[in-house]
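A reminder from the course coordinator: this example appears on the midterm review sheet, so study it carefully.

Given structure:
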């Protein structure tokens, strides 16, 4: 009969990383088509999801493109900023800590 030894407790716990929302802000210059393109190519949304988020941005002034860990959120923002600059669009994104209140 074999006996298993219990592992000693180390006193450490694993916590989930903080999550951050990438928020798109409406403007009067960036085309709806470009916003959808970004949502599909950068954020991995389907055409239907991208259209819904774009309409949310258009009607309410802002919309969440996705929620990620900090590094991933910042990378997606940087890629989108570069695409926007290349196309001369002023699309603005912010990265905000996601909380319990919807963001």
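Designed residues:
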């Amino acid at each position: 009969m074999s006996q298993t030894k219990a592992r000693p407790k180390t006193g450490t716990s694993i916590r989930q990383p903080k999550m951050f929302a990438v928020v798109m802000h409406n403007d009067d210059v960036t085309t709806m088509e470009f916003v959808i393109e970004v949502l599909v190519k950068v954020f991995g949304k389907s055409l239907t999801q991208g259209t819904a988020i774009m309409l949310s941005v258009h009607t309410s002034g802002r919309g969440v493109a996705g929620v990620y860990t900090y590094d991933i959120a910042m990378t997606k923002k940087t890629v989108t900023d570069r695409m926007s600059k290349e196309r001369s669009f002023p699309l603005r994104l912010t990265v905000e800590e996601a909380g319990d209140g919807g963001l």
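Residues 19-97 form a domain with the Ribosomal Protein L30; Chain: A, fold (CATH 3.30.1390.10). DSSP finds three helices and three strands in the chain.
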